[in-house]
Design a protein that fits this description.
11 helices, FAD/NAD(P)-binding domain, alpha/beta
Length: about 325
Amino acid sequence: MRIAVMGMGVAGSYLMSRLAGSGHEAVGYELSSRERHDSICAWGTIRPVLEEFCRRAGRNFGDYLIHDGKSMRVRMSGGAGFEIRLKGLCTYDKLALIKDFMSGGDVRYGRPPPLPDLEAEYDMVVDCTGFNRAYLPKIKEDFFLPTYEYKVEYDGGLPYDDFYIEPFEGMSGYFWYFPLGERWAHIGAGDYRKNHVRATKAFLEKHGGRVVATKGRPIRLATPDRCKPYHSGKVVGVGESIGTVYALLGEGIIPSMQCAELFLDNMRDMRAYGRAVEEHYAVYAKVFKFVQSKIRGNFALGSLPDFLSIFRYMKRNEDRFGMHVRMADLIKVARA
């Protein structure tokens, strides 16, 4: 097949690398220019999971690893704090890996052809445009958080030598700090109540540092069950365009790459792809329902079964989430 992959973020670039040598002809399209193409979200992921994805794509994740986390400090809105032991959470050179995934492929920068022209030229158009969802029908009940992010350089030492987060009151979002080696850090925040800019500015005022890059973007928390259709005509969505973000953590790197694998396994049968997406991300709907109930202040005893399901899911998959999952810690966050 001739396949157009729209958007060279995490999902699109990884898909390009996996389609290389597959017998299909893949052409990537990126709206940004080659010089301005950038990675617009935090550089944190889970090392053993990314090692496997990189192996499938013929890359060595160790070439991109920046910081291997040992613990994450959590500071609650009331001032109390605790630490979570980590087991794989790390930061990596996300943009370098994205560009490496794209290397050797046919990637075209700038404004792409309109959809009718794409559908006339290609057998399939893969929408990897993330939040923009530029080629699929509009979502009827979308739900997203605005975020603001900075890459910061510190000359006199980092404020924290490991991961640090501050959940906002009511679980409406959180502030994060991810170390990027000895001199840099990625900080940012997303908040449904739009206090994210205030939080990042307060951190910069307190700890200083020189801002070297700034990004503002929304992140979709609506889960795949709310992001249908997954395909329309020749267009099929992969990644955040169909809601593959784990709402409790705001994490989308690994879920988007998992979605690319589901697409590769079912690319000749869109009904099978839809079923695979629904099955794989079924727990995400429970997570979203829980987070939404906290944000809107209507969390009740009836939500406890979902809360317990979320805990059991994360406990079973500690290696996937890169941290030791304890009920006591989850309750502390849930009580925010």
